[in-house]
Amino acid sequence: MIAACLALALGASTPMIALHAQDKDAAAKSEGEGYAKDFKPFPAAKSVQQSAVIGGKRVNYTATVGSIPVKDSKGKTIGEVVYTAYTVPGAARNRPVTFAFNGGPGASSVYLNLGAIGPKRVQFGAEGDTPSDSPVLTDNAGSWLDFTDLVFIDPIGTGFSRSRVDPDQTKKDFYTADKDIDYLSRVVYNWLLQNKRMESPKYLVGESYGGYRLPRLAYHLETQVGVGISGMTMVSPYLDPPAIGEADSLSPLPWMINLPAMAAGHFEREGKHLDAALMNPVEEYVRTQFVTDFLAGPKDKAATDRLSAKVAELTGLDPAMVRRMNGRIDIGTYLRDIRRDQGKIGSVYDSNYTVYDPFPASAYPEYNDPLLNTLIAPTTSAMVDFVTRVVGWDVDAPYNALSYEVNQNWKRDNTDTPVKDLRKAIAIDPKMTVNIVHGWDDLSCPYFASKLIIAQMPTFGVQNRIKLHMYPGGHMFYARPDNQEPLRRDIMATYK
Prior knowledge:
two-stranded antiparallel ribbon
């Protein structure tokens, strides 16, 4: 999760990571944190045999934790990337292998690993979960391991992965979009080389900013590294930052993209079943009358009255308050006002995940994102215990499930183009499968952005080349047990 849109966003409308509601104390840590001048070398890769019941059947597998060095052009090691791999021994050479990335930037892969598709999971992300809950791993019935090997990769500065150069050089070598794609592509190549898996069908999965990475990784691997990608799955992806951001005072796009997710949250609170039949009229309104009334501007009283009344109806917010805001409801207002009478706040990742507002009388929000704050303890404790005790990879170092430092130091220039690379990657490979999966309630990376992007794509000779799948819940919809089997089934259908 810091997943980018659990891009961890630094603002409520940016993706996981965009580190939402950044913790001030964490942000104040020294820039040099994690720079290791005299650290112990990482141990050699270590494996343990395990089993889990997945899809109703017991699967025996090998869990391996190890590291892959990142070298500069002169062969000097400048970083070490830690991975966790789950492989089924004795499988055919053509068994698929899937590389998984979370987002942020600044998130480790623990969320997809122990929350979504790995063979074991720890409970987090559901209403009522707390940081003090015991981080016990159980079998994940919704894992993908029965149809693909899995390799979870922690970018530099996340998990146990670390830079071997000074802080300024670290930012240049690792904390830009282009450098990120370059070294992570080499990590994928090197894992395949070390494990003699070049013949295997290769897939990618990425959440939030990990979904932002995926099209660029796929195209770079195909055309620069020499590794073909059979398919990719983008989980709550952060594909088009300018469309989601609210910096443009003219464009209706951010408001269009956010409103269906707000409506979905309201419908769910009313006990309605979220599906396309319920949401299609909302999307049709957003594409048509909403845009007309929005562009008419607040000086057109009739248009603003009409827009405000409809927005209040769809969100469940107080009509008078919505009218005062001319029908333009920002994410922060929505999350605080939908339950103000209860003294609770919702999460940007799932508006129906709530905790109590620590300062309900304050005119301004004074809290971190409630879902984000509850994730750190169970995921960190569970992953560190798994790596060090269960697998026995003996490491003496801090583990960053979410790194505010990486997110803060990331160079954001929005010059990279994941949507363009997505088009180019699938244009040159008609066999590549593409899935985009979303939760209806996610306001960090709203589903409607992906739907609008897909609508602008050419067919590439095949209808529905990019498949969009929707599930109840928010950014980490996979945390809801009822979504595990549908997600597994939808993705398994697109694997060779």
